[in-house]
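EI: anyone free to look at a 268-residue chain?
SC: sure, send it
EI:
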Amino acid sequence: MYKLIALDMDGTTFNEEHKISDVVKDALFYAMEKGVKIAFISGREEFTIKQTLEELKIDTYYGALNGSLISTTYSKVPKFVKSLNKEYLFDILDTIEKNDLTPIVFLENLIFTNDSNDEYVDIISKFINPKIVRVKSVKEYILENNLEEKVLKIGICQEYDVLKILEEKFSDTIKSEYTLAFSLPFFFELMAKDTDKGSCLREICRLNDIELSETIAIGDGENDIPMLNISGLSIAMGNAMENVKKNVDYITDTNKNDGVAKSIRKFI
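SC: here you go
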């Protein structure tokens, strides 16, 4: 029997309008009535995850920023926070900016980026809460406000091919000292070493005294692979990236067609 369902949000639980359909909501409540816990594990910032859970009136553990922060719906203080190693922080920012891309820096309660005319930042900012703060220089802002040890994630929004080239340009040191992943084909992220959705799922299971074999994980992006790889049952969305679909136990329908709900009804 499965005791916990770990859900990605964008491209999975959320439909194409970035909302949870009534069909999916009904399936979530159906699972909970059966005694199954729901955990959102997302690349999204904490505010949106917490707001979504509060609207659903679900009190549960969640992982924000790909597991950089773990907490519960009504907690005022996070249970777990892991920031990036500050040693190579500015090397990362330099590499991004030298490739004419714009870094988006995520702290626990603040998101900021360079004050540029980057259309991709304008697009992604529509779906991020709290709103992205525009600063003259992210590097100067970090130094002036002593934020070197508070950065939880750095994101870059661009075309997939451009981001793949950027990924290759990061040094071997950065690749070994940080976690690099795509949450969406157009959004690339860097987190602390050994921080990903898999480590997040492990910790949430530990806190709930649940075995990994008793979990279902559902996702669509490359950043979902670590939790899909260790869950008892791994499910990829029909709209998932192709390399996500390769090694899962089951492929469900798309987020447009309530794939999460169909999976829950099938396996719970």
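EI: The two ends are 8 Å apart (CA to CA).
SC: 👍
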